[in-house]
Specification:
homodimer; alpha/beta; Arc Repressor Mutant, subunit A; Rossmann fold; 8-stranded mixed beta sheet; 3-stranded antiparallel beta sheet; disordered C terminus; DNA-binding
DNA sequence: CAATCATGTGACATATTGTGGGAATTAAAT
DNA sequence: ATTTAATTCCCACAATATGTCACATGATTG
C-alpha cells in the first residue's frame, strides 16, 4: 500500500477493523509504510474519539455495545468483593430465607451461594434474580415495579410492599457509606426509602460495605449500628468505626487479603 | 494457532470457554504457543475481572454449575428465533410501550430491540428484564412475585395485577401451541392464567410462535384468533391455520430463511 | 516567511514473557 | 492416616517487546 496522509490512513484503519477485530501496530506500520510511532499516534487519536480501543500490541474495534454502568461496577474490585462474599456466605445455612438487597456486593454474595441448596431468596435486584436462576434448587421471590437504571433494581412502593411481607432469617443489605456517628447511609433517596422499612421486621441484619465506604458519608441515614448485627468488610475499618460497632454489639467480619496465609482466615472482633 | 498478543489471547480464551467449560493450562499454552506461566497470568487477569474461575490445573467458566434449562432452550433454533425477532421488531416504533411476555422468542425480540431508543418495556420475565437493562435508553417495568424456575418469569397474582395496570401499544406474547380451531393454547396453567387477562386491555396483540407450535395442541386455551392481530412465525403454517388467521383478520408474518435474497422479506397475507 | 502540523528518531518508561527455584496442592503409595 | 512423589502454582528476575515522550526535520498552509 502506498503512503497515505493522516486522514486517509485513519479512515483506512477503521475500514480494516471491519475485516478483522484486531490489528497489531507492526502490521499496520508495515501496510501503510510508516513508522510504528505514527500508527500509535493514529491509535491515540482514534481512541480519543472513542472509535477504537488501544491495546498492548495493537488496536481493536470498540465493543459495539456500551456496557451498562452497573455491569462495569460489578467487575471492579472483584477480589475484595469475592472475599466479602465468602465471609458473608459463611453466615448462611441451608434452608434459610434471605432478603438480598441490590448492589454489586450482594450480587457477588448471590454467586457465592451457588452451591447451597434449599435457599429462599427475596430480592429487588434484577441482576441478583438473574444470578439466582442459575443456581438450581433455590427459590426466588422477586420484588417488581419500575426498575432503576443505575442500580438495576426496583425501589418503588410495589417492591417495598412485597418485601415487607416476608420475615427472612437474614436481611442482607449493601450500604453506600458508613459513618461512626451517623451509622449507615445512602446517597439515593429511593434506595434509602426502600431499605429503611426492611429493618423493622428483620431478625438479623447483615451489612456488606467495602473499605471505600468508610471514607464516604451519604446524606440519608438508613440504619444505626444498633440496627445491624453483622458488618462484613474487606479491610479493617477506622478505629472510631470499630468502636461504634463494638458499643452497639455489631459483629465485625473483616475478610482481609491474606496471600499465602490461608489459615489466618477472618478477624472477628467482639 | 499463531502467536497472539495478550488482548487477543484473553478474548480467545473467553471464546474457547464457550465451547468447553474447562481448559487445562497446558492445553491453552500449547494452543497459543506460549509458556504455561503466561496462561496462568492471563487466568489471573481474567479472574480479577470476574469473568472466569481459576482452578487447580486450568481455568473454567464462572458458571461451572449446570446451565439452567431455560438458558439451554434459549440457544436452540437460534437462527429461526432471530429471524422472527427481526420481523416482530419491525412492528415496533420508537416511543412505544411494549408488554413483553416471557419465553425465549420474546427474549430474542428484546435483544433485537437493543438499538431502539425510548421504549418502555413491561415484562414478567427475569431474563428479558436482564436483557433490557443492557439496552441503554429503555425504561423497564418489571412484574414481580414468586419466580417460576422453568420459565424464569413471575406468573403470580402480583405479576398479573401489575401488568394489568398498563395499556401497552403492543402486547407481545409467546404461545406453546397454535391450533386452527381452538386458537392459541398453553401447557402451563399458571402461565395461561397470567396471559389471559392481558388480552382484555390490549390494543394490539402480537403472538410469536415458531413452526413447531403448529404441530402441538396445548390443553388450556389462552386466546382465539380474533384476539390476535399479528402472528409472527418462521415457516408457512398449515393451510387450515392460514385460513383461520385470514378469517379472523390476523396478519401473518412469516420470516422465512432467505439466504442471499434480502429483498424478499416477509410474506404478509391479508 | 512564519506558524502549524505530520512524521521519524532515539532515549526512556512500562508491559509482557520465559525461566528457574521454592511453596502449595493433588495423587499415589504405603 | 501418613508419607512420598508428581504436578501445579506463585514469585522474582532478566530479556524482550511495546509504549510514551521530547525533539528535530520536512511539508503544508495562510
Amino acid at each position: 500500500m502506498k503512503q497515505l496522509n493522516q486522514g486517509a490512513r485513519l479512515a483506512a484503519i477503521l475500514q480494516l477493523l471491519e475485516e478483522k477485530a484486531f490489528w497489531a501496530v507492526s502490521e499496520l506500520a508495515d501496510r501503510f509504510e510508516v513508522s510504528e510511532e505514527t500508527i500509535r499516534r493514529d491509535a491515540r487519536h482514534l481512541e480519543q474519539s472513542g472509535v477504537i480501543q488501544k491495546m498492548h500490541g495493537g488496536i481493536s474495534a470498540t465493543s459495539n455495545k456500551i456496557e451498562a454502568p452497573y455491569r462495569i461496577r460489578f467487575r471492579e474490585n472483584v477480589a475484595a468483593k469475592q472475599r466479602m462474599a465468602q465471609t458473608a456466605a459463611a453466615l448462611v445455612r441451608e434452608g434459610m430465607t434471605l432478603l438480598l438487597d441490590s448492589g454489586t456486593s450482594c450480587h457477588w454474595l448471590a454467586r457465592s451461594l451457588a452451591h447451597m441448596q434449599n435457599l429462599t431468596i427475596v430480592t429487588n435486584s434484577v441482576e441478583i434474580a438473574h444470578e439466582i436462576l442459575g443456581n438450581p434448587g433455590q427459590r426466588l421471590l422477586l420484588a417488581g415495579g419500575p426498575v432503576n437504571q443505575i442500580h438495576h433494581a426496583a425501589f418503588g412502593p410495589e417492591a417495598s410492599a412485597f418485601c415487607r411481607r416476608f420475615a427472612p432469617d437474614l436481611t442482607i443489605l449493601s450500604m453506600s457509606a458508613v459513618d461512626p456517628e451517623r451509622g449507615f447511609l445512602d446517597f439515593d433517596a429511593d434506595e434509602a426509602a426502600f431499605k429503611q422499612p426492611l429493618l423493622e421486621r428483620a431478625r438479623r441484619v447483615v451489612v456488606l460495605a467495602d473499605h471505600t465506604k468508610f471514607a464516604k458519608s451519604g446524606f440519608i441515614q438508613v440504619a444505626s449500628f444498633a440496627d445491624v448485627q453483622d458488618l462484613v468488610t474487606d479491610l479493617e475499618p477506622p478505629a472510631s468505626t470499630v468502636q461504634a460497632a463494638s458499643l452497639s454489639g455489631t459483629r465485625l467480619h473483616v475478610s482481609e487479603d491474606t496471600p499465602g496465609d490461608h489459615h489466618k482466615g477472618n478477624v472477628d472482633l467482639v
